Amino acid sequence: AGGPEAIGGIWKTSEGLFGKFGPNRVIDTPISESAIIGAASGLALSGKRPVAEIMFADFVGVCMDQIWNQLAKFRYMFGGKSRCPAVVRMIYGAGRNAAGQHSQSVHQFLTGMPGLKVVMPSTPADVKGLLAAAIRDDDPVIFLEHKALYPTTGDVPDEDYTIPFGHARLTRAGNDVTLVSFGLLLGYCEQVADKLAAEGIGCDVIDLRTTSPLDEEAILDSVEVTGRLVVVDEAPPRCNIATDIIALVANKGYEALKAPPQAVTPLHTPVPFARELESAYLPSPEKIEAAVRKTLAWK
């Protein structure tokens, strides 16, 4: 009845598993990210399929060597003769007034590491299907969960299913603007699309689901129809997923563009603690709507 192992961690992401599977399979570790990921690396190489959890993605730096130089490179450096089927769950994101060291989005540099797959779900059903796919994958998978999405409810099929990586989800359809996002901000994009639909403005809303692999085809096909692109990303503006996707479209879909692509991102600062400052820092439905209208007004 007591102890972190019984409650499933501070986020209760493994609630009930200790009682069901016992201490040999559900291990309550010290708070040492390097030890957690180091142990997961060894378990994966020895034939297990470990699921490790880092309570806050902000502390990925503490275990960066284990992720970047070990997990991500084992299979390549051993000539494809080894497998490293480890899943690393990380809790990320702002909006809960947790200040600069417990609110960050770190997916941009994890996505940039060859050898890793990076998953960023936005719905309960996608969490189940993508997590099942991650555990069964023979490569290391970083599974990023936005802390503000934990209270979200939704229908989840009872049966066993997986969602393949690299296949984005079209959640709204329209011919005027392409909106691309993932995680918490995907819902903001849907809010804007629904509001603009009442004015006769149609938005394609693309939920990436995974940033690595990236569904380039879904993005380019949509921009080919709409000619306008808005990408929404919670990571700081330099070298994030928004800039990566805009570069992709500029390189492979330039002739289809009717207006310069827009990125809706935070400011290039640490995440503020004060509620008002954090709100001003983050992307919002209002900022996304303004970006959409800017692309539509371009002459």
Layout of strands and helices, then pairs:
Elements (H helix, E strand, L loop, with lengths): L3 H4 L9 H5 L11 H13 L5 E4 L9 H8 L2 H4 L9 E6 L14 H5 L5 E3 L4 H13 L4 E6 L22 E4 L4 E5 L2 H14 L5 E5 L2 E3 L3 H11 L2 E4 L8 H12 L9 E3 L10 H7 L3 H13 L2
Parallel strand pairs: 1-2, 2-4, 3-4, 6-7, 6-9, 9-10
Antiparallel strand pairs: 3-8, 5-7
Helix pairs in contact: 3-4, 8-12, 9-10
Looking at this protein, list some descriptive labels.
10 strands, five-stranded mixed sheet, single chain, alpha/beta, 299 residues
Please summarize what this structure is.
With 299 residues, the chain is an alpha/beta fold.
Overall pLDDT level: 94
Q: Helical amount among residues, as a percent range?
A: 25-40%
> Rg to the nearest angstrom?
20 Å
Q: How does the major sheet shape up?
A: 5 strands, mixed
Give the ordered list of helices and strands.
HHHEHHEHEHEEEHEEHEHEHH
Measure the end-to-end span. 65 Å
Record field, number of beta strands: 10
Structure class: alpha/beta
Q: Give, in spatial order, the strands making up the sheet with the most strands.
A: 1-2-4-3-8
What is the approximate shape?
globular
Tally of separate helices: 12
Unreliable spans are: none
- What percent of residues are in strands? 5-15%
